[in-house]
Each structure stands twice: as C-alpha cells, then as structure tokens.
Amino acid sequence: MAHTPGTDPAAGKLDGQPTAENRHRRAAMGSAGGASGGARGDVALAPQIMLDGISMQIIEQLQQDGRRSYAAIGKAVGLSEAAVRQRVQRLLEAGVMQIVAVTDPLTLGFRRQAMIGIRCGGDPARVADHLAGMEEIDYVVIIAGSFDLLIEVVCEDDDHLLEILSRVRMVPSVTSTETFVYLKLRKQTYSWGTR
Q1: Which of 24, 70, 84, 173 is deepest in the core (most CB within 10 A)?
Q2: pLDDT digits (tens, 9 = 90+) for 163-181
Q3: Domains, the chain, ordered by start
C-alpha cells in the first residue's frame, strides 16, 4: 500500500495493531499525557503492546530528555518530524508512556514523602481503585508478599501524613497499614530503556 511521503506508513496503527483495537484499549484505559519532562511508562495499566524498534528508540530518546524536539528525535531514529509526532501521540494515547515534569517535592513545599504498605480483607483491586482517586497518592500498585498494596504519598508535613493515613485506614476492606517514611532520596530514575 502506498503512502504519502513525510507521513508514517503505519498511520492508524500502533506498531502493527489495528486502529479499532487501539480505540478499544484507549477506551478501557483512558488516555495518558502531560507536560514536558521525562518519559515514564504506566506499567500497571499499559496492555501488552508489541513495539517495533523505531518506537523503542523514540521512547529511549524521550527518557533521556522529555523536551527533545520531534526533529531531533527523527534525525536520531531515521523518521520525519511528522512521523515522530504521530508515533509519540499514539504511544501516549495507548498508555505506553507519559511525558511529565518530574519535580523535587521538597522544593515545592512537600516536606514529607512515605510509602505505605496496605493489607486488605477483600479485593485489593477495589481498594487500589479507591486509593488511586486520592490526590496526595502518586503511586498505587497491587503486589505479592506481606502487603496487598503499596502506595506512595507526598505530604506537606507530618500532620498532613496523619490525615492521609486516617483516610486510607477508613477505606472499606483495609485491615492494616505500615508506613515507611522517606528520610533521604538517594536515587530516582525513569531511564530504564526498552527491551
């Protein structure tokens, strides 16, 4: 099938996935996107999508610098600026990645960060969905082990942390929590590449 020069021949598809299937996946997941910054995949929600080598290279380029221009990415991966723009948009819409500004919470007035382990008496997915709606919680994951869920919270101070803990403990099916207060951040990276 012929295509117009300067456009992505896979337009309407995400690395071999039909458009209708992608629309169904987006409807089930919601769309992802954001401001400039580092690229970060939403591992918990992204379906298993087969990515070709070009898409993986684009993701790696954005992990190195989320503000890198489409023209610069295109030069690095061998595509036109328009083709890169289309691919990035499809990756965002499919939930494969997000482009966000990663900040230092301390500089923004959030003096307390903590990870909270949660044990549930009922369905952990239901509790996870409820907690995901709380603004102060920036990370929710269902896990195996001594806890059913792990959440990360960013708070203004200890009083704010206590208030959040109280709300978390009031969620139906939550039986116990354990809080791990962050003392010093030594490493945080989102540049794990692609496989």
Answers
A1: 84
A2: 999 999 999 999 999 999 9
A3: 19-100 (no CATH), 105-181 (3.30.70.920)
